């Protein structure tokens, strides 16, 4: 099958000397898995750096970088005016050369470009949003930073795609509230590299006292402040926060300063350590160094951090929302709590840190759960069946 994956989103983080992370990592792994199954896969992304070649072959699939907009990373809001040109470039390319049998848009800009490209064809469109503006606005409130056009454009996109792929049950419900029929929504969770994220291997250096690890960008929406408040109830333990800018830039970062001031005011400054950005290929060592991984974001669609931690054999204490609620089985692989319940968060962390046998049992169950239900092979299997379904639905039936 010929598969085109479209990612017009220019705000995907990438470490200069490491692998892609977030949305681009997801696309790269899906592309590699599909190519390994014999499919002809091409990934289309905007060319946002002058030193990037126009085309490249990676892990059996082909990357084509579309020359639209500035040759530099730009905020998503500034990308929107270029999406029609992106779609026209794809349409011209597919009319003159290789054409996909199915197109899969990623994030809402990629979906809009894909829908523009195929509007005069019978090529079906599958769409993964990765996050939804209406959900982010509801959970983040004043901290929501998406462009004003995002939510109406996402609603419009749901009306033109053949199938929307949700990454958690909360997203399934949200997409149906946005007007999609339930039969037009497929739940396909993200995968985890179980070769990279596993219990055996090197661990980052640590102190003797128990370690709680929190992973996520330095912004209010990641919920680090809840953990700082909760540390008053935890006792003698350290909270390590990984994420944000490189460590040498932390001192000038507004959220870093806010969290440090909050830790000082609450009397836990000596227990809280912010280590800045950690390359994704080094994250497994940090998970393995922790006794518990805490996942307390105000919004989480895929729940990637909880899955990576579980794959490393570390129990997760997290808010029961989004992908976290799907990944963590309460009192089996960790604990799920009501979002925002800081008191219960602190008490739960204290009790779990004191329960060596409980953490051991949770960790073993967590590894089994990820290896059974959240591998990239399972994700690719589900998408392969989905592609076959939408292509079969669009093919004309031959007259007898």
UniProtKB/TrEMBL annotation:
Glycosyltransferase subfamily 4-like N-terminal domain sequence ranges: 22-191
Entry keywords, A to Z: Glycosyltransferase, Transferase
Organism superkingdom: Bacteria
GO MF annotations in UniProt: glycosyltransferase activity
Record-level GO BP terms: carbohydrate derivative biosynthetic process
Entry keyword Glycosyltransferase: yes
Chain ranges of the Glycosyl transferase family domain: 205-357
Cross-referenced Gene3D superfamilies: Glycogen Phosphorylase B
Name listed for the protein in its UniProt record: Glycosyltransferase involved in cell wall bisynthesis
Lineage: Bacteria, Bacillati, Actinomycetota, Actinomycetes, Micromonosporales
């Amino acid at each position: 099958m010929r598969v085109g994956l479209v990612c017009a989103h220019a705000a995907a983080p990438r470490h200069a000397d490491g692998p892609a992370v977030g949305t681009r990592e997801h696309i790269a792994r899906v592309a590699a898995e599909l190519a390994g199954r014999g499919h002809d896969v091409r990934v289309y992304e905007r060319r946002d750096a002058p030193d990037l070649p126009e085309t490249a072959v990676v892990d059996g699939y082909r990357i084509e970088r579309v020359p639209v907009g500035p040759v530099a990373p730009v905020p998503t809001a500034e990308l929107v005016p270029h999406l029609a040109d992106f779609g026209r470039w794809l349409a011209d390319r597919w009319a003159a050369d290789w054409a996909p049998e199915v197109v899969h848009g990623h994030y809402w800009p990629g979906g809009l470009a894909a829908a523009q490209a195929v509007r005069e064809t019978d090529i079906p469109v599958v769409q993964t949003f990765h996050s939804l503006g209406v959900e982010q606005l509801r959970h983040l409130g004043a901290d929501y930073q998406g462009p004003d056009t995002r939510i109406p454009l996402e609603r419009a996109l749901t009306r033109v795609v053949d199938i929307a792929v949700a990454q958690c049950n909360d997203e399934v419900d949200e997409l149906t509230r946005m007007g999609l029929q339930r039969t037009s929504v497929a739940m396909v969770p993200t995968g985890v590299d179980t070769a990279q994220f596993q219990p055996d291997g090197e661990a980052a250096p640590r102190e003797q006292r128990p370690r709680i690890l929190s992973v996520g960008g330095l912004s209010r929406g990641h919920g680090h402040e809840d953990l700082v408040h909760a540390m008053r109830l935890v006792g003698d333990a350290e909270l390590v926060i990984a994420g944000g800018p490189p460590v040498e830039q932390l001192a000038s970062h507004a959220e870093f300063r806010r969290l440090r001031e909050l830790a000082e005011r609450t009397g836990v400054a000596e227990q809280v350590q912010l280590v800045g950005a950690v390359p994704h290929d080094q994250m497994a060592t940090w998970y393995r160094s922790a006794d518990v991984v805490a996942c307390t974001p105000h919004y989480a669609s895929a729940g990637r951090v909880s899955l990576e931690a579980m794959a490393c054999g570390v129990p997760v204490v997290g808010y029961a929302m989004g992908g976290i609620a799907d990944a963590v089985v309460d009192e089996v692989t960790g604990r799920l709590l009501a979002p925002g319940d800081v008191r219960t968060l602190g008490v739960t962390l204290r009790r779990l840190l004191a329960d060596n046998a409980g953490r051991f049992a949770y960790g073993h169950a967590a590894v089994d759960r990820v290896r059974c239900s959240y591998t990239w092979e399972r994700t690719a299997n589900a998408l392969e069946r989905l592609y076959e379904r939408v292509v079969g639905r669009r093919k004309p039936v031959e007259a007898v």
